[in-house]
Amino acid sequence: MKDNRIPFKRFHERNESLISQYDENYYNRQHSKGKLTARERIDFLMDNGSFREIDAFVKPLGKEDEKQYGDGVIVGYGTVNGRKVFVFAQDFNYMGGSLGVVHAQKIIKVQEMALKMGHPIIGLIDSGGARIQEGVASLAGYAGIFSQNVKSSGVIPQISVILGPAAGGAVYSPALTDFRFMTRDTSYMFVTGPEVVKEVLNEDTTFEELGGAEVHATQSGVADMIFSDEEHTLMGVKKLLSYLPSNNVEHPPVLSVEDVAPGKNEKLSLLLPDDPNKPYDVVDVIKLIVDTNSFFEIAENHAQNIVIGLARLNNQVIGVVANQPKVMAGCLDIDASKKAARFVRFCDSFNIPLLVLEDVPGFMPGISQEHNAIIMHGAKLLYAFAEATVPKITVILRKAYGGAYIVMNSKNMGGDFNFAWPTAEVAVMGPEGAIKILNRKELLNADDPEELKRRLIADYKENVANPYVADEKGYIDEVIDPSETREVIINAFALLENKVEHNPTKKHGNIPL
What we know:
The chain is an alpha/beta fold. The protein has helices spanning 6-20, 24-31, 38-45, 101-117, 136-152, 172-176, 194-201, 207-211, 213-220, 230-241, 268-271, 282-289, 334-349, 367-371, 374-387, 402-407, 431-438, 440-445, 449-465, 467-472, 485-495; strands at 52-54, 73-80, 83-90, 121-127, 158-167, 179-183, 188-190, 225-227, 296-298, 306-313, 316-323, 354-360, 392-401, 417-420, 425-427, 478-479. The chain folds into three domains: 36-241, 2-enoyl-CoA Hydratase, Chain A, domain 1, CATH 3.90.226.10; 268-424 and 466-498, 2-enoyl-CoA Hydratase, Chain A, domain 1, CATH 3.90.226.10; 430-465, no CATH class. Helices cover 40% and strands 18% of the residues. Helix 4 packs parallel to helix 5, helix 13 (334-349) runs parallel beside helix 15 and helix 17 (431-438) packs across helix 19. It starts with 5 loop residues before the first helix and ends in an 18-residue tail after the last helix.
C-alpha cells in the first residue's frame, strides 16, 4: 500500500517521473537500430533484481529545470552470478550518450566506489563523445575518468563493453581497461570519424571500415572479444567474470566439480605430426590438458600465431599462453608479442598462475618487422614474464629456438618449472640453419652434399637440439610423457601454491613501450 503522507507522496512522484522517461518511444528508438536500451543491457547483465541505481535523479549542467533525469548515463551496483560488481551504462537516447560534466561525475563516482570496495567495474559504452556545448568542462570529465582507470589498473578488473559508437575521447577509457568487448555491425571505435578522415586526408571510408568490431578484433587488436549480438556479448562478459578475482588481493574463484578431466590422456602423444615442420592446432593440446570445456580464449581473431586465454586446471583458474604452429609456424612477431605481454601482465596483476605451451621456431624475420620495432615489442613479452611473480610453468612441446626460447618463460627468465616432451628441440636455431653455418665448407666440398646434410642434421638433433641435453644441463626440470602432462602440471602448480617472490622495491619499472 502506497504511503500518501507528504514526504512519501513526493518520493513516489519522483519515482514515477523517472519511470515515465522510459516509455515505448524510448525503447523503439534503440530497438530500431538493432540495439538494446541502457536499462535492458543492465537487466540482462545483472542478476535478477540485484541492481541498485545511484544518482538516478541528477540533471545536466544548466538544465536543472527540465524534467529529464540521469544525464544520459545509468550507474549503480549489483551482482553478476552472485559476484558484486559496479556498472555504468551510457544512454544513447539522451543527447547521443554524450559526456558532460554531470555524466562524467556519475561515472567517476562508481569508479571510486569500485576501487575503494574492491569490486570489478563494467562500462557499457554507447556514446557520441564529448558534449560540445559544455566545452572544456566535458574534456575535464574525460580526464577524471581516465585518471580513475589508471588508479584502478591492476587493482580491480575493468571491463569495457562497446555497444554503440565510442568516438573521440570516449575511446581512451576502454583502451585503459583490461578487456574490451564489441558487437558486430552496431559498435564502432575511432578517434576521428569518417567525415574528419575525408576532410583531412581526402580518404573515403565507412564507420565499419574505420573502426568496426571486425577491424578491431582482427587488425588492430583493440577488441578482445566480438559477438554477433548484444545478448551474446553480455553473456561473454558474464563468462569472463567467472574466471576473475574481485581484486588484486584475492585469488580467482575455485569450482568444486568432480571428474573435470582424465588425469592421463594418450591422445596427447598422437597430436604432434612425425614431421617437425608440419603444423597442428595447439588449441587441441590445451583442451586435452585443462578441465573439460573450461578454456576461454581471448583475442582469438588477432595475432593468431599465439593463443592466450583463461582455463581451469583441477578447478583452479590459470592463464594459458601457447604458440600456434598452424599460423606462421608459431613465430613470434610484433602483434603476438604485444598480445601475449599484456595478457601475462594481467594474470600477474590478479594472481592467476601461468601455463606456457611452447613451440616456437623464432622471431619473425623481415624488413617490416625490424622497421616496426620487433626488438622493442618482443622485449615487452620478455619483460612481462621476467616481472611476473605468479607461479609460471612452461612445457616445450616441440621447437624452442633462439631468442624466442628465452622469451617464452625459459628457466633462466624465472620459469618455476620447465618441462619438455620427448619431441622437443631446444637450441640456438633449427638443424638446417645451424649446419649451414657450422658446416658450410664441408657441404660446399662434399661429393654428395644432400647425404652429408642428412647426416649432419641427424647428428645435430642427437647431440645438440634434443631435450635430454637441456635436461642434463638443468635448463629443463624433466622430460615428461605427453600423456601425463596434465598430472605433472597439476602437481607442479600445487607445489607452487605458497610461492612467495618479490621484485625489488621501486616506484615502477620502465617497460619497453
